[in-house]
Amino acid sequence: METIRVQLLRPGARLPTRATEGSSGFDLFACTGGEEIEVTQVPVLVPTGIAIEAPPGVDVQIRPRSGLSRTGVVAAFGTIDADYRGELLVTMYTTAPHIRHVVRDGDRVAQLVVARLAPVRFEVAAALTPTGRGAGGHGSTGR
């Protein structure tokens, strides 16, 4: 089992936690110092009050919460590199002008998902192995 070290940067900051034993993501909590943050279509940064130290070879991503996304409130995907030591900030926005959302201290705003990085390398190829799909892109395999 890998260990991710977490620094609590200010009062009210919380460790990421799983909502259930079967959850793949760890909830990230807003740490706003008591301030309310209004989320609209213009992206805003929501502080979490934590910084992490992920071991090399571990992929840490910020992902949206499905419950918020269902209401049109989105947390942007973000990758936390193993050498980043700053505060985790969640970029949030709404999908339509009529949607307003207020983030309060302690609210669950996103998920942190942790996975192993695949050890890969890239090489130049004159041609790629042909497939049935070929270069067919977005929507090319049907609905």
Report what the structure shows.
By secondary structure, the protein is mainly β. 3% of the residues lie in helices and 37% in strands. The chain has one helix spanning 66-69, and strands at residues 5-8, 26-29, 37-39, 44-53, 58-63, 73-75, 78-80, 87-94, 101-103, 108-116. The protein has a 4-stranded antiparallel sheet, with no helix packed on it. Strands 2-10-5-7 form a 4-stranded antiparallel sheet, with no helix packed on it. Strands 3-9 form a two-stranded antiparallel ribbon. The termini are far apart.
Order of helices and strands: EEEEEHEEEEE
Low-confidence stretches: none
Radius of gyration: 19 Å
Task: Classify the beta-strand content into a percent band.
Answer: 35-45%
Structural class: mainly beta
What's the end-to-end separation, in Å? 40 Å
**Approximate shape:** globular
Number of strands: 10
Major β-sheet strand ordering: 1-4-8-6
**Count, helices:** 1
Largest sheet: 4 strands, antiparallel
Mean pLDDT across the residues is: 94
Features:
143 residues; single chain; 1 helix
What are the SSEs and their pairings?
Layout: E1 5-8, E2 26-29, E3 37-39, E4 44-53, E5 58-63, H1 66-69, E6 73-75, E7 78-80, E8 87-94, E9 101-103, E10 108-116
Antiparallel strand pairs: 1-4, 2-10, 3-9, 4-8, 5-7, 5-10, 6-8
